[in-house]
């Protein structure tokens, strides 16, 4: 009986101690010993850590090796494996992981408060700064002759540097999350024991220390991702402006070069018959624009997509599609008065086909960029009663438009409706 009571008391005391907040006595924090520790240990650790990091970044870029066998020619497979990054990223992030782990393992709040900001400064100024200088001075993709593409080796080196930034963000995110997750995801006893060694709560038991360390880690991640994302955005725009954009407008011109949108009823019936026989033949007249565009689009995007990381390619695609939608809309407007009823049907088919080519691969959200183009074609092909109902079935036309989800304003809708020769005023 006494043994059971003693065991119950021990359990209650243990639970009470677990929930009790530990505080460092003020006489310790203000003691001469603590001041000596800061002056003789913490400050030198911070200085040596900063030197180690900066020297490591410098040495990593001196010994930097680029991925071998990269080419924009799809017929030449690369010799290395994706993601295509330089060796400096792995070297630097390995040192960062080691420094973070050893700093947190000291269980000293003062060490964390000095070392983690130093890591942030070195990564922002030295690592990102070095990549930025290389992008600007060594491999900026600029054509030697106006209208031509930049040299292939320059384009590849620039794409790899953008990948370095993206993968660097992923590394930092994983380093930080490995400390913030703690016991999450640990099932077995061995996994929990390993997780407890990296648990901030176990390393920093005193009040506020664990949350302070977590906030410092989050600040490290947020600062690095913010600066890296900004430089990634600048790099993506350079790739778009100097590599992709010069080929987009000629691509559309070539796709629509031999397409006639003033066909007669006989030509429309013939084209419709070819569409119905599409399973037997891939060379239908109505698919001319789509075929030309797909070949050009694949030749433009697939080599870059093979080199880029998925997230970088998505960024480039968003930028390119925004520009492509504007160019496509201008081309549609250029047919004002030069298109008949049957041509409008064909144009709507071609535009839908082009959009499907661009958004393939489950990128359906990108369709919104082409909303204006598809709505122009939709209005052109509306029946008269449907158009009249859209325009006059409500007391307020703007309410009808808003309910229908139209993006075009009233003047643009009227202009789109008048594009056909039979309706031209």
What Rg, in angstroms, do the CA atoms define? 31 Å
Beta-strand percent range: under 5%
The share of residues in helices is over 70%
State the shape: elongated
The number of distinct helices, counting runs of at least 4 residues, comes to: 17
Which class best fits the helix and strand makeup? mainly alpha
Structure summarized in a few sentences:
The chain is mainly alpha-helical. The chain is built from 17 helices and no strands. 71% of the residues lie in helices and 0% in strands.
Descriptors:
mainly alpha, 71% helix, 17 helices, 425 residues
Notes on the structure:
With 425 residues, this protein is an all-alpha fold. Helix content is 71%, strand content 0%. The chain has 17 helices and no strands. It has helices at residues 2-19, 26-29, 32-62, 87-105, 109-138, 152-181, 189-197, 200-203, 209-255, 265-276, 288-307, 310-333, 341-359, 371-380, 384-392, 397-404, 410-417. It is elongated and about 95 Å long. Mean pLDDT is 82; it is low at 183-189 and 277-286.
Write the layout of secondary structure elements.
Blueprint: H1 2-19, H2 26-29, H3 32-62, H4 87-105, H5 109-138, H6 152-181, H7 189-197, H8 200-203, H9 209-255, H10 265-276, H11 288-307, H12 310-333, H13 341-359, H14 371-380, H15 384-392, H16 397-404, H17 410-417
Helix pairs in contact: 3-4, 3-5, 4-5, 4-6, 5-6, 5-9, 6-9, 9-11, 9-12, 11-13, 12-14, 13-14, 14-17
